Amino acid sequence: MAVAGAMVMSGGVLLLLLAFTCAAYNDAGELPPISRRSFPKGFIFGTSSSSYQFEGAAAKGGRGPSIWDTFTHQYPGMLTINGQK
Question: Matching Pfam families, A to Z (predicted)?
Fold first, then answer.
């Protein structure tokens, strides 16, 4: 029981130390606000996502292989990952 109490106390001290450290770095300087005028004229904002990025493994949760899964397995040499084929 004493060990558990000491662990909780040391965890609390570490959490407090982390909070003070974050607060000190937060006050170190502010970044200028980002506005539409911060970007060149004609700049177009956009977002996208891909099922391959977030759906998970093809054999899990009832998901079957997608077109991309099939392509990457049939033609592994067609991909460049981190600058290497």
Answer: Glyco_hydro_1
Burial of 29-42, coded b for 16+ CB within 10 Å and e otherwise, reads eeeeeeeeeeeeee
- Distance (Å) of CA 2 to CA 6, 8, 11, 23: 6, 10, 14, 32
Is the Cβ–Cβ distance between 76 and 68 less than 8 Å? Answer: no
DSSP state of 24: H
Closest CA to 67 of 54, 58, 59: 58
Question: What is the Cα–Cα distance from 75 to 83, expressed in whole angstroms?
Answer: 17
Q: What is the pLDDT of residue 48?
A: 83
CA distance 24 to 20: 6
Identity at 19, one-letter amino acid code: A
pTM over 0.70: no
